TrEMBL record:
Residues 600-664, 697-755 form the CBS domain. It is a multi-pass membrane protein. This is Chloride channel protein. It comes from Ardeotis kori. The chain crosses the membrane at residues 68-92, 153-175, 195-215, 227-243, 255-279, 332-356, 368-385, 441-461, 468-487, 515-540. The gene is Clcn4.
Amino acid sequence: MVNAGDMNGSGNLMDFLDEPFPDVGTYEDFHTIDWLREKSRDTDHHRKITSKSKESIWEFIKSLLDAWSGWVVMLLIGLLAGTLAGVIDLAVDWMTDLKEGVCLSAFWYSHEQCCWTSNETTFDDRDKCPQWQKWSELLVSQSEGASAYILNYFLYIMWALCFAFLAVSLVRVFAPYACGSGIPEIKTILSGFIIRGYLGKWTLLIKTVTLVLVVSSGLSLGKEGPLVHVACCCGNFFSSLFSKYSKNEGKRREVLSAAAAAGVSVAFGAPIGGVLFSLEEVSYYFPLKTLWRSFFAALVAAFTLRSINPFGNSRLVLFYVEYHTPWYMAELFPFILLGVFGGLWGTLFIRCNIAWCRRRKTTRLGKYPVLEVIVITAITAIIAYPNPYTRRSTSELISELFNDCGALESSQLCDYINDPNMTRPVDDIPDRPAGPGVYTAMWQLALALVFKIVITIFTFGMKIPSGLFIPSMAVGAMAGRMVGIGVEQLAYHHHDWIIFRNWCRPGADCVTPGLYAMVGAAACLGGVTRMTVSLVVIMFELTGGLEYIVPLMAAAVTSKWVADAFGKEGIYEAHIHLNGYPFLDVKDEFTHRTLATDVMRPRRGEAPLSVLTQDSMTVEDVETLIKETDYNGFPVVVSKDSERLIGFAQRRELILAIKNARQRQDGVVSNSIVYFTEDPPELPPNSPHPLKLRRILNLSPFTVTDHTPMETVVDIFRKLGLRQCLVTRSGRLLGIITKKDVLRHMAQMANQDPESIMFN
């Protein structure tokens, strides 16, 4: 027999117990929450608040504050997310232009802002003003010539490398979780997984700062995905201020779902699209109450961003456009072709990117994240600078590709040969033959398209904040614009063909190439993420054109069908599986005819199941069991002979309960009997004080019989968010199935590596 003093002095277990622990009911890092228990605790909390509210005026006021706390959190999330998005947009605008030059009148002005304030800017040369000087003009007083070009080229690369190095260093030193898009981890967290620090204050600060740096560096990535992570960090911060959310992981996830909606709302200026994105793409549990709150958070965030007006055009996004020409039925064919291209591009990107990321994880490449970022940035800057379509920021590129060619446009893409006799309104210019500028732009766009397709594969997944929405849209917009110009020229030169005869007469404005760019952008984004409904809503909120919903729907559905033909996983699900997170996707179908007995542990030939008995084990026995195993919990049975199930005890709560009992309860020693029954067992005289642990016992654990089909078990795990499920026959315990067992079985049935599921 070992007394308590000896136990405290030796063994790893007691060292472990000496660490400070949160209260009972919390979870360890990299473990899954118990949704049923969280729901039950919320019900108890609500019942307690309601009953107390009748006792006094003060308690009634407290109940009102508790009821309104959800809306207050949403208001705060919307305000902070909108403010951060506005600051990021303004900072990116300035730092992107800083690579090419500086404003002499006020160095904090971007190129556009600098020339707005100038009195010497003419309409034809609206991008040129004496206050804005390129680096070559400032340093060597030359704006043209080879030496000026080489100096500007060199400084462009140096600024890009400086921004990228600063970003990757900040992430590596202060917040390793600030890298990547964040959406795969947000999806996993919303499904009930705990990743401590992922939504912390340091992550919020570093991700906001580094997001500005990496987007400004010119790398092929966007800020839209990371803005969802930033908004969820805001949600986590504000929910920690209210006990209703900080002490209940299930309620906290309702707040995070709404925060994700606010993130998309400010990323795209699409509040409704944000709510649908949260519902369709990231949320696991989305009750009706969360839908309303998401709507409110997205509204406040969009309103805040609109108040800041970062783009100076009274719009929420840089690439807001309005088209004046309707689309025609014959154009559905090229729209569907763009959908096919989007699906193929999505499949190619996912396969290549996952292969590269797997190589990064399994080879020495992963040990040099800073070097990788520097090399990719250098390659990007060197290749991007000579081409005007890759030199500018991706958002500006998309804006130009979406634009309709009006009479006032100075872009190369609008270099058409004008008819001198044309006397039509400005917004209804007829189709015209392409000029030399359009042909130059076409081959430059073709080169830019190939470059973007290749470089994005290597950029996404590096140890810096990196979104995928904008690069995917850029690929689709470039392909779409080229197809649009092709169809436009075909219609102009062959207007007597049967397909054009009915709707494209000479002198009419038939084809809008910008619309094709928009459809292509939607198709490519859909192919990569497999979004459908939310994607279409985001795109029409971007453009303000309800008229173009059908082309967008056709392209989005086609791209999803084509991409799904090669594999059901979108990029975010693929990265979840690559990282081994325990994510049970609602979209996955399980059609195999296996039974619970095939999956449960212990299997034949394995050691028997580790269990606790209701009244025959000592404290030392329980501590030894905890020390020798790493299970999350233990079934409690009547005795090892009968194995009739009583309940289930969580490992963490057993450790906390024994630790507290040793500190606060006199007489509890190593050979004290632990009992889970209502009444203490009969003990011989002079026995040590027994320890009652019934309060931590779950008396209604979820059970299935050994002949339950796995299809049903998988459905139960999905819909109830279980951590584990006990397998019984006639009330007798046979085994246990955990979430990890379910995921490994599904991977095995799909001919994948079951060992890739690493967490509980």
